[in-house]
Amino acid sequence: MDTPDRNTRTGGAAATRALLLAALLAPAVPALAQRALLSHAEQPAKLIRKTTVYDAPAGAGLQPGDIVESGARGLQIEWPNGALMALGPSSSVQLDAAAGAPSVNLLRGWIKVAANKPASRLTAAAGPLEVRAGGGSGILHLAADMTELFVEQGTLSAVDKDKAAAPPLPVNREQYALRRGALPLQLMPRAPKLFVSGMPRTFFDPLVPVANRAKAAEAAPLREVDARDLADWNDVPAIVNKRLVAQFAARLADPAFAKDAETLLNNNADWRQAVQNIKKRNTITNYLF
């Protein structure tokens, strides 16, 4: 029979092993913040994961690197840390693969972000502008020649990524920030009427967590991505564009995709180069064999 002392020592050793195991697993914890949920969607969203297009209903889990597109109606995405993001109609966003707090890249259209809980953090990039939300909410709009930010509640931090030496700019409640072309970031006391009139109507309401009401669902694979899926993203920042080209360049092995890419993606320098590279490889292969 074990003595009390022996039991104590055995229990202590087990506790020590548990603490060591927890310490070993600790580096993986920040990645959990990236496990997003499509918490609300009146119609299935278009999800692109790696090179496959999916139908994603409300309740589907999302992964870093996923691209989510809305149709005629918007949708909502939530993270375990309490961060929320609404995607406007006909808009698309890519979940970033960076560790730590959730981050997204707006590829086109409108998003509304909110991080109002004490532990909530969310970084949203749109064009050359990076917005860090923690204790507030705001609306981002990405157009061909400009990026706009309106802060609804609290204070958001805006960073002009083209101006590496510039400090983050605090944008307070009801203030509006504009980055047009190569001009410096401008801060205004209120949003212009054109911005307000173009904003999705649902963005006038505060974001409310609904993840606990969403029934678990799975995204259904439909097909491989084609060049038409990618044609709307020619105006994304260079670093995001290169990441997208690297993600989808494998599809150039499909002659139909390569033919469409040469036409539909010709305005994109990185895609032009990728198409030329595949042509050269095919020419060399045909010559040798």
Structure description:
It is a single chain. By secondary structure, this protein is of the alpha+beta class. The protein has 3 domains: 1-31; 33-213, Jelly Rolls, CATH 2.60.120; 226-288, no CATH class. Helices cover 27% and strands 31% of the residues. It is built from 7 helices and 17 strands. The protein has a 17-stranded mixed sheet that branches. A hairpin with a 5-residue loop joins β5 (75-78) and β6 (84-87). The relative contact order is 0.11. Mean pLDDT is 87; it is low at 18-31.
In short:
This protein has 289 residues and is an alpha+beta fold. Helix content is 27%, strand content 31%.
Number of domains: 3
Shape, per Cα inertia axes: globular
Order of helices and strands: HHEEEEEEEEEEEEEEEEHEHHHH
Q: In angstroms, what is the radius of gyration? A: 23 Å
List low-confidence stretches: 18-31
Mean pLDDT: 87
Main sheet properties = 17 strands, mixed
CATH topology of the largest domain: Jelly Rolls
Distance between the termini: 78 Å
Structural class: alpha+beta
Number of helices: 7
Strand content: 25-35%
Number of strands: 17
Identify the CATH architecture of the largest domain: Sandwich
**Helical residue percent?**
25-40%
Write down the CATH class of the largest domain.
Mainly Beta
Main features:
289 residues; alpha+beta; Jelly Rolls; 3 domains; 17-stranded mixed sheet; globular
Describe the secondary-structure layout.
Blueprint: H1 4-25, H2 29-32, E1 37-41, E2 45-49, E3 52-56, E4 67-69, E5 75-78, E6 84-87, E7 92-95, E8 103-115, E9 122-126, E10 129-133, E11 136-142, E12 146-153, E13 156-160, E14 169-171, E15 176-180, E16 186-188, H3 193-198, E17 220-224, H4 227-230, H5 238-248, H6 255-264, H7 269-288
Parallel strand pairs: 8-9
Antiparallel strand pairs: 1-5, 2-3, 2-4, 3-17, 4-7, 5-6, 6-8, 7-8, 8-11, 9-10, 10-13, 11-12, 12-15, 13-14, 15-16
